[in-house]
Amino acid sequence: MIPSYFQLDDGLDYQRWRAEKMAGAPQCVADLVVEVGDIAALTEAEHAALLARLGRCNMAVYAERQRRQRDDKQALKALATRLGLASLDANALADDDGITPLSVHREGTRSRYIPYTERPITWHTDGYYNPPERTVRALLLHCAGRAAEGGANRLMDHEMLYIQLRDESPDMIRALMEPDAMTIPGNDEEGLARPATVGPVFSINADGTLHMRYTARARNVIWSEAAAPAADAIRRLLDGPSPHIFKHVLEPGQGLVSNNPLHTREPFKDDPALPRLLYRARYHERIS
Which intervals of the chain form a coiled coil (predicted)? Predict the structure, then answer.
């Protein structure tokens, strides 16, 4: 069931939800950060602090107090389990355990894809090319090694973008919720083939929360005629100054837990002797 505040003909409940959302919005990156001892064994207070930030803005950044000698991938999975996540989205370029190591590859299949290069990644939500039955609702990142230079992420709560668009024109939200709003053409590359995916940008999860499926890529995306003006508005809002866009470089022992908000990655320079390495885990559930 769609909550009343997400129904475009209900202005009063929307204004109440909007006021509450704006009042709880973080003001700076520091508002997102939770210090923890060990992500594989959160205390009750640490767990509650992460959930509180997720409830306010769909994301939190954890910072472990010291580096640990351990299997970071297993620690990340333990964190996901504590957050109620179980259905790992194992994409074709992930390792056999479903976790994707994001590092620079100079050759091979991974080297042909931007996440495995030093190049920037524009605004997107993860899994925008997935079919509906594999919707990515939660995204976890853990930093094991930072870049020699650059590589910051920009982050924005997708509910804040929804508010900005709806305040400007509810018709844009209506167009972006149409089932044919955004099409990602298929890929026929051997081993990585997938069909075209057609679907909305904004949709409502079964629990009544808002989901966003989006990429700012100019190529390999087709917008419906009705949604094209809204797509232009999204790009304008994301490229302009905003108090709701936060920039942060993950340091070793830090990570992001999120309900797959909008995010980018800036270009970076890699040091092969001390390479950048992030572990990424995508889940079909949302952190609630």
Answer: none
